[in-house]
Specification:
The protein is mainly alpha-helical. The chain is about 70% helix and about 0% strand. The radius of gyration is 15 Å and the shape is globular. One of its GO terms (biological process) is signal transduction.
């Protein structure tokens, strides 16, 4: 609700802006991928057959509520542009997935297999980034 002047000098550091973006998504009451979709995305990324896995994840993205879907499309388009500059910013698909996976896709309750979930969360984000053109 606050008006921000992005020309203000305090916004010059890209890490501040990136941190604010990540904090925004982390503090949402429900993540970008709603809790009810978490297990479905994890099951989909575990599918061994690539074509079936791709269709399943694409269908899941389209099953998201419109605001979530539209926000995901915009965010992932931006992240793909960041990846295009990976030689300068060192942010590869894998790096972005590690940074954003647990923020955008998390279970309703943290449980003992959190480390295992993190691997799959990152893989889901990586898949969506790699298949952005096909998914959206």
């Amino acid at each position: 609700e606050e008006h921000l002047d992005l020309d203000d000098g305090r916004w010059e550091d890209i890490h501040v802006i990136t941190g604010a973006l990540k904090l925004f998504f982390r503090e949402l009451p429900e993540p970008l991928v709603p809790f009810g979709h978490f297990d479905k995305f994890i099951a989909a990324i575990k599918i061994q057959e690539p074509a079936l896995r791709g269709r399943c994840i694409r269908d899941l993205v389209y099953s998201l509520p419109d605001p979530n879907h539209d926000t995901m499309k915009l965010l992932f388009r931006h992240l793909c542009r960041v990846i295009e500059c990976k030689e300068e910013n060192r942010m590869s698909v894998q790096s972005i997935a590690i940074v954003f996976g647990p923020t955008l896709l998390r279970p309703a309750s943290e449980e003992s297999n959190m480390a295992m979930h993190m691997v799959f969360q990152n893989q889901v984000v990586e898949h969506i980034l790699n298949q952005y053109g096909h998914i959206f």
